[in-house]
Amino acid sequence: MCGRFVLEDIDEVFSRFRLSDSEDLVGNIRPRYNIAPSHYAYIISRNARQENRLEMMKWGLIPSWSKDPKVGNRMINARVETVAIKPSFKNLLKTNRCLVPCSGFYEWKTAGAKKIPHYIGPKDSKIFCLAGLYDVWKKSDGTDLKTFTIIKTQPNNTFKPIHNRMPVILHQELEGQWLNTKLQDYDSIKRLLKPYPDDDMISYAVSNEVNNSENNNPQLIKQIHC
User: Fold this and answer.
1) Pick from 145, 167, 186, 225: most CB atoms within 10 A?
2) Range of 16's domain?
3) How do residues 173-195 score in pLDDT, each as one tens digit?
């Protein structure tokens, strides 16, 4: 699964994605080292003119038709095997795809009675993107609440010793295809959702301080030796 992630190199997000309607965010975004479910995060989607846009969304998807917003607590991830089948995700896979920019993410490896947090990401990339879906839910006061989920798939060999699922990391050349809502064929869309190559990943143990989602500092991503 994917339960925490990091967004550190902010400047590259703006330059790489040529973001529109985001001028008010420039200079106001700070590095974050422990983004957890129910937190708000910066998400990239496309507007009606097929321009990239950056928005804040809450992690934990609430379907637009849901009567209970608490369902979002259980929908931080979507399985690639069922994302085109489940009612909560099926239509979103065609119309509401998004990118979750990050610098790395955390996963916990079970070692006996302990769970050791690991920091994981591609080797040579300051920013990469996870495949996500988003939806818009109406609050009782009539305002919109935008929420998202991260798609997970089978682990590659690097990730397998840590966890039996991993988030879908999109190669940079596939990010535009993922955002392009003119791509509507389920088979073509699902072909983008593959495990990231083993040789391009790094993984190392980090401090248990990451377990507390209120902790947010660069020391969280520093390697420790168990």
Assistant:
1) 167
2) 4-221
3) 999 999 998 899 999 999 999 98
| Residue 75: predicted pLDDT | 95
Q: How many domains does the chain have?
A: 1
- The verdict on whether 107 is a catalytic residue reads yes
pTM comes to 0.93
Per-residue three-class SS string for 17-52? HCCECCHHHCCCCCCEEEECCCCEEEEEEECCCCCE
Alpha-helical segments (H) within the chain: 10-17, 92-95, 175-179, 186-190
Whichever domain contains 122, its CATH number is 3.90.1680.10
Given the residues 2, 98, 102, 129, select the one marked as catalytic: 2
pLDDT for residue 21 is more than 70: no
Point out the catalytic residue in the list 55, 98, 102, 107: 107
The verdict on residue 197 lying in a domain is: yes
Catalytic residue check, 226 = no
